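**User:**
Everyone, produce one record:

**Assistant:**
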Amino acid sequence: MEENTPESQQEPEKQEETPKETSAPEDIAQEPSEETSAEVPEKTSEELLAESQKEIEKTRDLYMRARADLENYRRRVQKEKEDLIRFGNENIIRELLPVMDNLERAVEHARSESQESEGLLQGVEMTISQFQKAFEKFGASTFSAIGEPFDPGRHEAMGQLDSDEHPPNTVVQELQKGCLLNDRLLRPAMVIVSRAPEKKTPPDIEKN
């Protein structure tokens, strides 16, 4: 005998759920941008090698410049040291030069006056010779400019003298000798320079 089950006890029929329409996300639907799609290409070994060589050349150039600067500094210091040794006595020699000048003038004066003071003259000449040897020991030497063409690098002109016997701009008189210290000019020679005498034109004779 069939039992009638109440409707309430019957299982409710499942209603079919209609799937909701889901729209695809914009990020997925849209095409990826160029920034995200473009991949950074990896550098090849040749490119990496070229960059490394450039860095090496740059470092080498900086090293060579620094080395050249250091070498120039060493040379400059060495030259200053040598100059200090060679020209360290410059001030002393400058002070002694006028003493020798006066001795030489005294000798010239004694020779022109008389021969009575021959012994004194010889003594002064010996003193001058000793001075010259002492100067040479320290690299100093005097020079005469008589008969030389005027050189502004070695001579100091104190005046001019008309002369037919010498070419113009020739040293004809020497007031003070010049001096060199290790081939460097310590003081110029004071000289008188020749010049061509002015030609006198005869006066015009008026014709009657």
Notes: The chain has two domains: 46-86, 90-195. The helical segments are 26-29, 34-37, 45-86, 90-113, 118-137.
